[in-house]
Each structure stands twice: as C-alpha cells, then as structure tokens.
Amino acid sequence: MTEREPIAVVGLDCRFPGARDAREYWSLLMDGRDGTDRVPSQRWDADRYHAASSTAPQSASEARPPGRSNTVRGGFIQDPDAFDPGFFGISPREAAAMDPQQRLLLQCSWRAIEDAGVAPQDLAGTDTGVFVGVMANEWAYLQLADYDRITARYGSGNGYFMGANRVSYHLDLKGPSLAVDTACSSSLFAVHLASGSLRSGECDYALAAGTNLIMTPVINIFYTQAGLSAPDGRCKPFSASADGIGRAEGVAVLVLRRLSDALADRQPVYAVLKETGINQDGRSNGITAPNRWAQQRLIESVWQRAGVTADDIRFVEAHGTGTLLGDFIEAQALGELTSGRSGGSVGLGSVKSNFGHAEGAAGIAGLIKAVLALHHRTVPPSRFAADANPRLDLSGRRLSLLKAPLRLPSGTVHAAVSSFGMGGSNAHAVLASAPRTVHRGRDRAPGVFTVSARSPERLRANLLAQADALSRRPENQLAQLCWTSNRVKSRLPYRAAVAAADLPTLAAELRKAAEHAGEAARVDGGRRSAASVAFAFTGQGAQHPRMAASWYRWWPAYARHFDEIDKVLAPHTGRSVRDLVLDGDPEVHRTRWAQPALFAVGYAMAAALVESGIGPSYVLGHSIGEFAAACLAGALDVPDAARLVARRGALMEALPGDGGMLAVSMGAAEVEPLLVRRQRLGLAAVNGPRSTVVSGDLGELASLEEELAEREVAARRLPVSHAFHSPLMAPVVEEFRRECADVPARGPRIPVFSTVNGQQLTGGETMDADYWARQITAPVRFADAASALLAAGVTHVVEIGPRAILTPLLARLKPDAGHPVSLHAAHPGEHAPDHRPQQLFGELWCAGLAPEWDVLYAEADRVPRRLPPYVFDDSFRAWRTGTAPGLPELSAPGPPGADTAVRRGADRGESCPPAPAGDLPDPLAVLTRQLVCRVGGHDPEHVHDHDRLHEDLGFDSIRVMELKARIEDALPRLGTLPIEDLLAGLRTVGDLVGFLRGRHGAAAPVPTTPEGTR
Fold it and tell me: Comparing C-alpha atoms, which of 102, 90, 118 is closest to residue 869?
C-alpha cells in the first residue's frame, strides 16, 4: 500500500428524485429527464407557505413575503417513509422514532455492500468505516418540539452522528464512524475522509454516504428570503435562464476499497478515485458567498497531486447550483485552469439540472454521476445546455455544456467533481476509469443460484428481481453469477435454490420458484440445535455405467478425490476404475469391478462433501458401503480399504454363479421359518418392517418363490450375479479373513451404525478382521441400524452413492412425529441432471446446512459479479408532516403533527413469525407478550416464544430497561428484577416467560389487563 494509492469504487446504491436505484438514476441522466415535482402533500401544504414572486414588487416584503416560499416544486424521492425494521432487528416503535434518513441509510448501505459482491454479514466485526455527509435534521425539529412526548427512543432516533453510528451498529462495523456537516459539500467531504482512512490503513472497507430529506418548508423559505430560490423549483446551471436553486433530496452510499485490494479479490470496479482534496474559503465577500480563488487553489492542488493537467480531464461534474454568482465564480475558477488546454473543450455539467440541489447529498450525487459515466464510458447530457449563459464565456474558457451524450475514448479517462459548501468548505475529486480486467468463466459450467429473504413474500420479490436481471447477462458468466449469489444472498432464513447449466433455464426456474415462495420453510440455525448429519453409503446394485460422471466433469473437488482414490486402487485392480466408470464400460456390473467402483465413487463423494463443510456426525453403510463409511469414521485406513475392497470383489466373482436374490414383502420374523428346511438360503438383508431380501441357491430360491406366490406375498428377483450375504459366500470367508489380518483393530472416531450388528458400535467394538469376514455372509440389518440412527437425533441424512437406494427405505423408517429428519440422495441415478452436485448443494442449503460454496466451483468461476441488491419490505411507514409550530396543518388528515407508523398490505416480514396451530399460551405468557409488544410496538399475534428479544424484536438495553419497569409494575410480587439476568441470561421471549414463571410461582394469579398493556 502506497501513501497515495488509488481508491476503488466497488459498490454503490442510491435513491434520488425520479430514480429508485442506480440503474434508474443512470436512465434518468441519459434521458435528460426532469426529476422535479410538486411538493408532496405528505410533507407540508405547499400552497399554505407559497407566495408567487411579484413581477413588479413595491417593497422588499412584497418581493419576498415573510414566512413564504416562492416555489411549490422540488426534487423528492418516492416513499421516504418506507422501511423494513424487522430486517435490521428494530422494533416498530423504535423505527417510528428514527429519523427517516437513518432508515434510508441502513437499507442503502446494505444494498451498496451487496452491489460490491460482498455479503454484509462478512463485514461484521471488521474495521469497516462509515462516513456520512448530512446537513439537515428536520426530523428532530418535528419530533422534539413537544417535550412531553420525548422518550428514550428519540435520543437514538435523532442527531447527525446517529446516521453513521446506526449503520455501524446494525451491521457491526468496527471502523471509524462519523457524520460530516459542511453544508452542501458534506458528502464529498465524507468521501475525502473515507479515502484518507483507507490510505492510512485505518480501515479496509469504507462506506461513504450522503443523505438529505426535505421535511419542512424552512430551507425553502430561507432560500426565498435570501434571493436564492428558483421560482419553478429547478436548478439551471450555467444557463442564461438560471434564476436560483431548486431543492432536492436523496440518499447514496459508495463502497470504497484500496484499488490493489479490490483487484486482488477480482472485485468489479466502477471507477477509481485518484485524488481528493478539501479547503476553506476563509474570509470572502460574505460567509455564504463563494470564493473563486479558494476554489481555484483547491482544484489546482488536487490535479497536481493526482498527476493530471487540464489536457487529461475529459469532463467536470460541477457544483453548478444555477445561481448567477455561484455559476460565474465556478466558471472563472475552472476556466483559469482549462483555458490553455490543447485539443477540444472540457465537458461540463451538473446533475442538479436533472432534479435540483440535494444539499448534504449533492456532492455524492455528482460523484456517482461521474463514476457511472466512467463505467459506461459515456457522459450524460446536461439539461438547459442549449441555453448557455453567454456572460460566462464558457467557450473561451474551453468549457462546453453537453447538449448530447459524450462518448469517452478507450484507455484511461479522467474526470473531476466539485462540491462547495455554503459556509465556504470546498471539496474536489479527480477520478479515472477502472483498469480493464477480464475474468472469463468456464464455458457452459453449471452453478446453483441461491436467494434468501426475511419472509416468504420478500423471497418471492427477490426471486423475481434476480430472474429479471439474469435474463440480461452474458451466458459465460452463469457459474460466476451463481457463486456470487452463494456468497452474497445465502444468509437469511427463507431460502430458494435453483441449479442450472444455462441462463435462460436459470431465469425461468427462478420465476417458477417465486410461484412457490410461500411454501418455503424458515431456516434458522440460531434457534435450533446444531445440525447433525449422517452419511448412508449405498451397497452393490447401485452401480451403472458413467455413474456420477457429471460430478467428475463439473465438480473439481470430487474429480480430485476420485483421481486420488483411483491411484490407490490401481495396484490392486490392475486397471483404472476411474476410466472404467467414466468411459461407460458395462464391465462395471461385474462384481470384481462393481465393488471397487462403488467404493471409489462413494469415498470421493463423501470426501468432497466433507471438504465442502458438510461432514458427517454419524455414518452407516449397506454391505460394500461399509468400507467407505469406515474410512470416513477413521476405523479403516484408505489404502487398507482399497486393498480389501478389490480383493473382496475378486474373491466373490470367482465363486460359481449359481445363486440369486429375492426381495420379499414380509418381515424378517415371518421369513425366517420359511428358510429352516432350505439350508442353502439365508437372510441377506432386512431393509424394513416388511422389506426382506433372501439370498442363496437358485433351486431353493425358486421353491421359496412358489410358496410365497401361493400365500399371495409379493416377491421380486433382483438382477445380481451372485447370492451375496448367503451361505454360498462361505468359501471365501477364511481367505478374506486372512487378507484382513494386518488391518489395525481400532474404534471409529465418529459413531458407526453397523449393519452387521444392527446397532451403533459401542465400547471396545472395532471393525477388525473378524468383523469384515463376518460381514460377507451375515445379513445386512439395515432397518435396525437405520432406526437406531434416526433415533439418535440426526437432522439430515445424505445417501452417498450413484443411485437412490437407501433414501426411500429411510423415508419409510422415519418416524411420523417427533424430531424432523431431512433426507437427501447425493445422486438419484442414471437420469440425474448433469448439474446434480450443484443441485445437491442447493437442497442441503435449503434444508438448513451451510456448505463451503467455494469448493463447488473452479477458481475461474469464483469471480464476483454484480447482482440486484435486496428488495426490502416497504409495508412499514412512519412520518410526521411538517408545519409551523402551533398551527394546524390544513392538509393533514389526522390530528396536527400526528405520528403515523403503519404497515400496509399483507407483507409483514417475519421478525415475528405466525404462531403454529395449537400454540395457546398460559396467562403469564399472554401477559409477557403483551408487555413485550407494548414496549416494542409489535403485533401480539406475531410474537412467539422462539423470537429473540435482541435480534428479532429489537430490544437493546434501553428497551430492556423499559420492559423491566413494565414487568415490575404489572407483577409487583416479583419485586425488583436483576437487570443482569434480563440483559445477559434471557435470549428469547420463551426464556423470559420461564424466568418470570420461576420467580412468580405457578399458582399465583396473573392480571389479564395490567395497566399499560392494553
């Protein structure tokens, strides 16, 4: 890192008049549209405070009537009151007390971080800095005028500092966190400070932001009285028709990094900040008057430090307010530097022409325009450019207002941005286009796209947003886009995953998933015990040519493990099992090849899953599957297992092929009497209560088959080469025992549910030579072993093998009630899609597991790509209408200055999930929930025992103290509650109910309508 290392803009999000996001912002600029509109009735009664400018005023008071504005227009964003409090763990009451600028900053910060290809959760605990430019706090004026209504919430809901601190708190960012107020240059000052913090090593990521909301007519009146307000509410920078300022609002966040770090992580870069600078006018013609010489000195010094001259600058995004004095001084300052440049003129413009002066967010509005222009290599036109002010002599100063979009040349291009504060604080920045980087993904590589949300409704909205965006992306980015979604979009409790090998299919499947989003189950590892995964390894009969070949082609980790196990097997098999499988050789059905091939596939699958963070807490194997299971459990070394499997298969194949196997729909206890007189038959497997396999001599098997037919018992011959697990296997038992003699007898590291014993290996039981010899003829007691496994508290079972043989058996053994178990087949069979590994990862993730996504992709596909950011729930609304103190607001539908904090529509989010049927609480639980809801402002019907007080319901220390006081008032027999217990020991509503029950006593009466809970 060098002292003046360039700073990369890696992510951004914004909301400005006429633009809900960065994409709409760019469209607004390129179309040259007007984003201004009439003052919304939600803000104030524009007519009440309006006085049109007189054409021939007789006095100053007639020209500028006191308490009145000369305009009813401005630049306003849509729905500034909309917020998703549950997403950030904020209670409705706290959200209603918060300055809407804080709410906007929270959501905008989250979206900007996602735009950078980073999960906001990954920045938690890091030294990420937050720097917010802000110059207005009109919410405090509206909220705090009534002293009797002030509560603890209003302290944290107001104040410039809280704009930054709120973001740092809720995202758990540990770096510098500060608000900057230098009036109109505040947000570009914030960018300057953020860049310095990055260069000094104080932080590795920085959020630089600006915000402004127009909630009252106060500044409009001030601008009118100062002669600065444009009657039509529009800024016309550098135009002959310029007649003052039109006010605007907006919010924007940039995610900044040192350029070297961004390039090392292959992050997409919008543009590069080469240098920034700030200074002050000092003493000028007046504290609100701009200083030409200060502006000129600042621009000159920043260009010098950036190593550029006027010849290098292609365009300047000016401060450009559209006041006669301001435009004239800025043109003079710039022209002093540009008038001598060679070549054509420098493009000049100001985004204020599109929607007005965004004040505290003005600097960042102009900066984002420049960043996007460099990114798209096109400078948008400037409104009112056709009517340039001739007195500014722009052409003589080699400056040119852009009447049409300016195409930028290839190679490095430079731009400059200015922002000047009313009190004389000036900021300037030099930008460059991003270095060209090419990161091509693998051609036609599949992936699994993940989307998560806080509620089923939000899941649907986000699925549709992603589907729409993906339809416009290049085909060769599919795996990279999927990897980015896994990295950024996979942390919330309602989940959907779609695996695909092409983008049109992926987009279509995401839309289908959106139709079923309401069926998604909540996944929340924080409320459940840790996942307990079991691997169940398939036995012989699952093999088929090219089994799991798609795993080898599209999952590098599996291919590596398959190659490694193939090398271990080769000395014992005499040829490559890998080539046998991948070439589709039908020899794979011969026992001598089937057994080592199944072992290799099962072992490689399991090893790849373990590498991916999906490791087993238990293992179980069906017949030959026990060898791979033993390796995973540490009971058998891989080289020993490879040797034994190869030898076992060869010995069995050498036996006469005079046996067969019969699947019988009867219980083992019913089958065993039928075998008493048939000495060459035996129980081969017990797979379920009425699923038994008999194996042995073909003649005796036919006799049994006839008898079963007479009893009308269903029976089915299995396509096998030998009578496995039958008395006909006895001739090879001793030789195989000798082969196993040097295998160490050691216990497993993780529990093994033995299908030889039908139960978990316990105590000193080992998988020694006797065990493996006995396994050849002993029946596979799968039903007993699997039932014991399911009773052990396992949460997920993954069948490891090339076909789903055990999964349907497990489904029938799974208890109907009690502990839920999620069943998955790693590879369902011959007809599984080529992207089956990706599909499996999606299934496991949706079922609550957390795979290491990187392991699923080749390095070429682990490249961040921009995806649409999160679509928040906008049903919560909280606002106060602006009015003069003591006067009724004529257009207000309710009481003067009344609070509004409402949820619109059915999309309530899931910070308080619906109660399950039959969840009827006792009186103490009812009272506790009433008190919790009273303090937090939650709907009692949507608060339940598993809701976390802090994370889900927004109870910080202030809220906990208020809750403590209400509980003590409602239940005086409790006495004074120890605050340390409430803060540290009680995580959920259920914990609180249990705590109060323990102190209150089960038999004590509980008031049903305590004071303060209705």
Answer: 118
| Whether pLDDT at 904 is above 70 | no
CA distance 670 to 690: 9
User: Are residues 334 and 298 in contact, defined by beta-carbon separation less than 8 angstroms?
Assistant: no
- Whose tokens are 């037919």? That residue is 709
This prediction's pTM? 0.89
DSSP 982: I
Using an 8 Å Cβ cutoff, are 582 and 551 in contact? no
- 3-class SS of residue 543: coil
Query: Which H/E stretch holds residue 374?
Result: helix 362-376
- Other CB atoms within 10 Å distance of the CB of residue 923: 11
Quote the CA–CA distance of 536 and 539 in Å, as a whole number: 10
Q: Find the DSSP H helices in 411-502.
A: 456-470, 478-488
Paired with 536 in beta bridges are 620, 799
DSSP 625-654: HHHHHHHHHTSS-HHHHHHHHHHHHHHHHT
> Closest by alpha carbon to 248, among 109, 19, 79, 73?
73
pLDDT interval class at 901 (50, 70, 90): very low
Q: What integer best gives the mean pLDDT of the chain?
A: 90
Q: Which residue from 991, 921, 979, 981 is spatially nearest to 951, judged by alpha carbons?
A: 991
pLDDT digits (tens, 9 = 90+) for 697-718: 999 999 999 999 999 999 999 9
Neighbours of 706 (CB within 10 A): 10
Residue 672 DSSP SS3: helix
pLDDT in tens, 801-813: 999 999 999 999 9
For 536, phi then psi, to 5°, come to: -115, 115
Measured distance CA(182)–CA(176) in Å, rounded: 18
48, burial (CB in 10 Å: exposed 0-12, middle 13-18, buried 19+): middle
Alpha carbon distance 940, 804 (integer Å) = 45
Instruction: Provide the pLDDT confidence category of residue 441 given band limits of 50, 70 and 90.
Output: confident
DSSP letter assigned to residue 593: H
**Tokens matching residue 83:** 């917020």
